[in-house]
Design brief:
Keywords: Cell membrane, Membrane, Transmembrane, Transmembrane helix, Transport. The protein is mainly alpha-helical and about 280 residues long. About 80% of the residues lie in helices and about 0% in strands. The chain has 12 helices and no strands. Helix 7 crosses helix 8. The radius of gyration is 24 Å and the shape is globular. The chain starts with a helix and ends in an 11-residue tail after the last helix.
């Protein structure tokens, strides 16, 4: 490990330790040292719990502290942490996949056709102007409380993000390269495969990273409004019991899920764009 990486790792761990220490004991220290009016509410364990309480809730929700054993605990609870995480992760993945594929396909088609872009442009702008959150109750009404409504909500959020980037990436392809390919006898499909798509990939991947987070947001919002299982459902149940530590457990698990999906997209980006200088070392 180089000295530079060791220094960076040292500071990252130090910052994390400071945050955990302040979070765990900061409220008691401020109450002992400061007047009541200056005690920061953000450190109040009633609202944000404590790291130790969050860890205990994690062990309980994750069935690690159940006397009956992990397997028996998981099988006996419909929406334990494992099931909720699996359901949210699965719905996020499918919503992200469908939204990305359809967004790329629509962006390439409309980006390569001026007529179709002019015909469908006003409709896409009108649909994109609708706040996706406002459509969630309608989606649940159509698809029910099951997983399909969460996938549809994630698709709604992801599609337009990917579409607009792909559309602009397709339009920004160097016209000279397309002309040179056609001069050498390349068909429209060959031009699309060898010139347009590789050139637009950087634009597409620039949208995929935020699209992962948006897909997770779409699924969680859907679970907030109506769901049978999932991390959003877990948060709503914890809120009803005013249990901040269980809410924080679900939030941290969501963060972990988001990081995993983002790393998967970055790995795919590094592989597919390995011909670009910034990805040569990581490919």
């Amino acid at each position: 490990m180089s000295t530079r990486r060791a220094v960076i790792l040292f500071w990252q761990i130090s910052i994390l330790v400071v945050i955990l220490v302040v979070w765990q004991w900061g409220f008691e220290w401020s109450r002992a040292l400061l007047p009541k009016a200056y005690v920061p509410k953000i450190l109040d364990p009633y609202f944000v719990a404590k790291p130790s309480l969050i860890w205990q809730s994690f062990l309980r929700l994750g069935c690690f502290s159940d006397p009956a054993g992990l397997v028996a605990c998981v099988q006996s609870t419909d929406n334990n942490l494992w099931v909720a995480t699996l359901v949210t992760l699965r719905n996020t993945w499918w919503g992200f996949l469908f939204g990305s594929v359809s967004g790329v396909a629509a962006g390439v088609v409309l980006g390569r056709s001026d007529i179709l872009a002019r015909v469908f442009g006003p409709y896409i702008i009108a649909l994109n102007s609708i706040p996706r959150i406002a459509l969630v109750p309608l989606v649940i009404l159509i698809f029910g409380l099951g997983d399909l409504s969460k996938i549809a909500t994630a698709w709604l959020v992801v599609f337009f993000v990917v579409f607009f980037n792909t559309f602009e990436g397709t339009r920004a392809v160097d016209r000279d390269q397309i002309a040179a390919a056609r001069l050498m006898g390349a068909s429209e499909l060959t031009v699309l495969r060898t010139v347009v798509v590789p050139s637009a990939l950087a634009w597409v991947f620039a949208s995929l990273l935020p699209a992962v987070s948006f897909a997770l947001v779409g699924v969680i919002v859907g679970e907030f409004i109506g769901a049978e299982r999932g991390l959003g459902k877990l948060i709503i149940e914890a809120e009803a019991r005013a249990n901040a530590s269980e809410m924080m457990v679900a939030i941290f698990v969501m963060m972990f899920v988001g990081i995993l999906l983002a790393l998967a997209v970055q790995s795919l980006q590094s592989y597919l764009l390995r011909w670009q200088p910034q990805f040569e070392r990581s490919a």
